[in-house]
Design a protein that fits this description.
Strand content: 15-25%
Helix content: 25-40%
Shape: globular
Order of helices and strands: HHHHEHHHEEEEEE
Structural class: alpha+beta
Distance between the termini: 65 Å
Largest sheet: 7 strands, mixed
Radius of gyration: 18 Å
Number of helices: 7
Length: about 170
């Protein structure tokens, strides 16, 4: 019985150390490195590279990035992603990508229902908090508060388009 308690305490300490180590490891990576390390964000990484935004998102920040998953990009109307990735459409791609970025570090606890946030692109995203879900301009936050050395990432399930592009 005594050994069982010691084992439980030791496992608890190891688990806590593991969580702390993983969190500090994540915080030592910038936003781009976090995205590169996540297999579900490979399309976003390719788009950031095509848009010439790697150095910007590796900069000091802080930035808040609403990061669409690969599935979110795949759900765009047929041909949309291919069109955006063409060199002649770089301005449109940059507009879409920077619409997913807010200057400053905005944690989920900083958000409120009905809030507007000005994006780096210049237009606002809308925050909807209802039924236990957080949505950014209609995109559901599926993973919140992924801390980076230069900001925070919130993974979303849709690519959001600036109102001026709709």
């Amino acid at each position: 019985m005594k050994n069982h308690k010691i084992l439980k305490v030791a496992l608890g300490v190891l688990f806590t150390m593991f969580l702390t180590l993983n969190q500090s490891k994540a915080q030592s990576k910038d936003i781009v490195d976090l995205a590169v390390g996540n297999e579900n964000l490979s399309t976003l990484v390719a788009a950031v590279k095509a848009g010439g935004l790697v150095e910007t998102l590796k900069g000091d920040g802080p930035f808040t990035v609403f990061a669409p998953t690969d599935a979110a990009f795949a759900a765009l109307p047929a041909g949309t992603l291919d069109m955006l990735l063409k060199p002649e459409n770089k301005d449109k791609l940059v507009a879409v990508l920077t619409y997913h970025v807010v200057a400053g570090k905005v944690m989920s606890s900083d958000l409120s229902n009905g809030q507007k946030a000005k994006t780096v692109q210049g237009e606002d995203v809308m925050v909807d908090i209802s039924y236990g879900n957080v949505k950014i301009s209609g995109a559901k936050v599926v993973m919140a508060d992924v801390k980076a050395s230069n900001g925070v990432v919130h993974v979303i399930d849709k690519v959001i388009l600036p109102p001026s592009m709709k």
